[in-house]
Design goal:
The complex is a heterodimer. By secondary structure, chain A is α/β, with parallel strands linked by helices. Chain A is built from nine helices and five strands; from the N terminus they run ααβααβαβααβαβα. Chain A has one domain: 3-Layer(aba) Sandwich (Rossmann fold). Classes of the chains: A alpha/beta, B alpha/beta.
């Protein structure tokens, strides 16, 4: 079921970025499996009651991949699949970077990097104070870890023993111009999070079983960081691991070729 | 003013478990009692203002009424985008408190001179911007902002006007008339502890037979439009006085209202920091004098303007 959802998210994403002439298809394809696992298996939510107090919360910190979240929400019943056609169009509330206004199911608007983790941590702290049982998930990019605000937050969560917080990092090793290691080296990445006091799991970010098991491996009193090793552009061969598709929009023959690959998958 | 803020905050925290105070490692000797009395309602987040503000947004999304506290420019300019995107865009109940407005920390140097905060906070949609002029106003503003949905900014000052507020009712966006001389020549609109200089200036002006009213414009946004209209109608000269850059501050807010609404005063004067940074240090009184916003200078400028009209 989650495999099917992942494929639907990928197809929607190619359609939306093609119709809108918008960027970031590579970034969206990179996280399609994580989104499918969260919305298709891991998270508790009620699509017909988006503000249900007992729901698990999800924040997309890499807001530029918002089309993926819109697709996941539509396929999960939060809004009509038809609404996805308005993405990036004049007057639409489905903005290129994810926004909560007018979009049920989006907990928080992002777009500037380095905002999601501190905010999700505030939600986790509130849940801890209130003795609520839900979990807060936040999905970040690896390039986003250049932002200092994340490391302020990385210090805070273990100090306050936020075991209800799960950070998933889309470790596709590419950012907007070059690789993460050529831009501002992040390695040894897992060691860094461990040194900050997090429970860290290093998994294949396209393997649903590994992702589900990782999400279910929370430890009491310790925040969890899942480093999801991914391929930017995953699922469309000519986009995979190619930085060009951070910005390029699939048009004409490229669109046809991408959709054919996804249909044949 | 800080004591008044803390007293009121303590009262509110006692009544409401959802009131949460975050500090970015400032408040030594100030917050200890609050911390021990209200566990789960106080967090020292460390020297990390961006994280503090994001954290505040997350807490507020879950229904907490959050106060972020630091000094000078740290709780505003250091984390401005978190205020804009996380707090304001999401319409959250967060009150940002800066201790040390204007030149309160004059000797500490330019980094600690809080002189553009009013303009910057005013420019963000969904904010209420408050600069009290005495401890009573600071306490009342604390309660009003915490009870007010949306993002508030409260600038606290080391000095104050010591003016009597007996019989006054505090309301956000409603200015307070401090002195009234009936049909005055001059209306002073003032925010912050610098009102002390204006009270002294008014005494000096009396010696020259110039009468003046003082209005504490504690809320810069939303601005009290009626008090501006009344002053335009009844006085010859409107003067704004603020301890900060005149670009975008209280004087700008008043002049914007006047120009937009055909409320053109006979004469208008903005007193404040003339679009510059201070590279010299000194106590608050010294720097006010140095940058031409002390009582002597205020009285001199006003006298010149009034005499020029005769």
């Amino acid at each position: 079921m989650t495999q099917e959802l992942a494929l639907k998210i990928r197809k929607h994403a190619v359609n939306m970025t093609s119709t809108g002439g918008s960027s970031h298809i590579g970034s969206i394809l990179s996280i399609a499996d994580v989104l499918a696992v969260l919305y298709g298996s891991v998270m508790n939510y009620r699509a017909d009651e988006p503000k249900w107090q007992g729901r698990d919360r999800f924040i997309l910190s890499k807001g530029h991949a918002g089309a993926g979240v819109y697709a996941a929400l539509a396929e999960s019943g939060f809004m009509s699949v038809d609404k996805l056609k308005t993405h990036y169009q004049d007057g639409s509330d489905l903005s290129g970077h994810v926004s909560h206004k007018g979009v049920p199911g989006v907990e928080f608007s992002t777009g500037s990097l380095g905002h999601g983790l501190p905010v999700s941590m505030g939600m986790a702290l509130a849940a801890k104070i209130n003795k609520d049982k839900h979990t807060i998930y936040v999905l970040m990019s690896d390039g986003e870890c250049d932002e200092g605000s994340n490391w302020e937050a990385a210090l805070f969560a273990p100090h306050h023993k936020l075991g209800n917080l799960v950070v998933i990092i889309d470790r596709n090793k590419l950012q907007s111009i070059h690789s993460t290691e050529d831009t501002l080296g992040l390695e040894p990445f897992v060691d860094k999070w461990q040194a900050f006091g997090w429970n860290v799991l290093d998994v294949d970010g396209h393997n649903h079983e590994q992702l589900i098991n990782a999400c279910n491996s929370k430890e009491a009193g310790k925040p969890l960081c899942i480093v999801a090793n991914t391929i930017k552009g995953k699922g469309v061969s000519f986009m995979e691991d190619n930085v060009l598709w951070h910005y390029r929009s699939p048009q004409n023959e490229e669109y046809d070729a991408a959709m054919k690959e996804l249909k044949d998958a | 003013m800080r004591d008044a803020f803390l007293d009121k905050l303590t009262q509110l925290a006692k009544k409401d478990k959802d009131v949460v105070l975050l500090t970015a490692d400032l408040g030594f000797g100030v917050f200890e009692a609050f911390e021990s009395r209200f566990p789960g309602q106080y967090f020292n987040v460390g020297v990390a203002e961006q994280n503090m503000t994001g954290l505040a947004a997350g807490l507020a999304l879950e229904g907490k009424k959050v106060i972020t506290y630091s000094i000078g420019n740290f709780p505003t300019l250091r984390c401005l985008e978190q205020i804009r995107n996380d707090a304001c865009y999401h319409d959250l109940n967060i009150t940002i408190v800066a201790s040390g407005g204007g030149f309160s920390y004059g000797q500490l140097g330019m980094s600690h001179h809080t002189t553009e905060d009013i303009a910057i906070m005013r420019a963000l949609p969904n904010t209420t911007v408050v600069v009290p002029s005495n401890p009573w106003e600071a306490g009342e503003a604390t309660e009003a902002l915490i009870k007010n949905e949306g993002v508030g900014y409260l600038r606290l000052d080391k000095t104050n006007g010591n003016q009597d507020n007996a019989g006054n009712n505090y309301k956000l966006g409603k200015s307070l008339k401090i002195t009234s001389e009936g049909d005055s020549d001059v209306s002073f609109f003032v925010c912050g502890g610098i009102i002390k200089e204006v009270i002294e200036a008014v005494e000096l002006l009396k010696e020259s037979k110039i009468s003046a009213s003082i209005i504490s414009m504690h809320t810069i946004k939303p601005i009290d439009e009626k008090s501006i209209r009344d002053a335009v109608k009844n006085t010859k000269l409107l003067v704004s006085v603020e301890e900060g850059n005149i670009v975008g501050g209280l004087g700008s807010a008043i002049s914007e209202y006047c120009m937009d609404n055909r409320q053109i005063p006979s004469d208008f004067l903005r007193i404040g920091l003339d679009d510059k940074y201070s590279s010299i240090v000194g106590d608050q009184a010294y720097l006010r004098k140095q940058y031409k916003m002390d009582s002597q200078y205020i009285a001199k400028r006003v006298k010149e303007r009034i005499l020029a009209e005769l």
